[in-house]
Amino acid sequence: MEETVAQPHIHYGQEEVAELEWASLKVQHIFDKTQMLMECYFPESIWKALLGMNGYLTEAASWKEEAESGIFQKWIKSPKGWKCIGCERYVQFSETHIQAEESTVAMDERLAFHDKGLLGRILQMIIWSKFEKIRLFHPFLGDDPFFTEEEMEIISCYFVPTYLSPVPLKERGKDFKTLEMAIPLYQERISAPALVLKTEGINVAGNWMTGVDLSCQGFSGLRPYLKVPKGGRTYMKALIT
Questions:
Q1: Phi/psi zone of residue 11: left (φ > 0), alpha (ψ -120 to 50 degrees), beta?
Q2: What's the pTM?
Q3: What's the confidence (pLDDT) of residue 63?
């Protein structure tokens, strides 16, 4: 069912916010833990080549003293509960840099996303692969599988199945989307609620997504947005009731 809102506001209950805060930190811990494991086996040069990261990293690195880095997780409220479909890393340019360039930009244009979510997608595929192997071979893995029991529960509840091949999803009769990148990935399709935003006399149709901001201090808040065709975003405000 398509919902229509007249103001760029999305209402969240206090319990929803509490769940997203708790879950986002648990999910990020799993992302970070898996990345640390992969970095032990793959040098930085391979990561950069795989992700195709060039200008974003160079640009961000040159301004890192003036910018605050963060993580932007992308969540969907599905009929089965909240699901994290990926994350992006970004830097937010400071007022000092903006004034030095003598430019005026919107807040979302002050964010430079390093990897466009590619790193998060690769990690999600690796996480899901290890999750399924642990679940299948747990009796033979002894007392120290890579993910703890709590982490396995978090993955089962909040992660979306992501593979290098569409075969597992086809065998289960699951609808999926192809994530185009250096190595194509296939992720179970989780439908985001349809939404029409009426603003300034114009109707903007898309899908409601919830962005969760994380910084080095932890949970930084919610940044809901309307995902419009061709991948554009219209950010909205989160109102907690």
A1: beta
A2: 0.81
A3: 33
